[in-house]
Amino acid sequence: MAYKISEDCTACGSCIDECPVEAISEGDIYKIDPEICTDCGSCADVCPVEAIHPE
């Protein structure tokens, strides 16, 4: 099960550096590619606005 970024995302960039498989892409609201995501949760752990949750 992949993680998903909600509309609460502020595009701060914290999560992108934490992803070990580069599944996160930039934008107004960042997106996680569910095909690449390994469900490690590293991105959710560093999100300052808690915008990342398991899908």
Proper CATH architecture: 2-Layer Sandwich
Count all strands and give the number. Answer: 4
**End-to-end separation:** 6 Å
Strands of the biggest beta sheet: in what spatial order? 1-4
Mean pLDDT: 97
Number of helices: 2
What is the global morphology? Answer: globular
Strand content: 15-25%
Which ranges are low-confidence, i.e. pLDDT below 50, for 5 or more consecutive residues? none
Q: How many structural domains are formed by the residues?
A: 1
- The CATH topology, please? Alpha-Beta Plaits
Q: Report the radius of gyration as a whole number of Å.
A: 9 Å
Q: What structural category do the secondary elements indicate?
A: alpha+beta
The SSE order reads EHEEHE
Instruction: Provide the helix percentage.
Output: 10-25%
CATH class: Alpha Beta
Summarize the main sheet. Answer: 2 strands, antiparallel
Structural overview:
With about 55 residues, the chain is an alpha+beta fold. It has a single domain, classed as Alpha-Beta Plaits (2-Layer Sandwich), CATH 3.30.70.20. Helices cover about 20% and strands about 20% of the residues. The protein has two helices and four strands; from the N terminus they run βαββαβ. It has helices spanning about 15-20, 40-45, and strands at about 5, 25, 30, 50-55. It has a two-stranded antiparallel ribbon. Strands 2-3 form a two-stranded antiparallel ribbon. Strand 2 (about 25) and strand 3 (about 30) form a beta hairpin. The mean pLDDT is about 95.
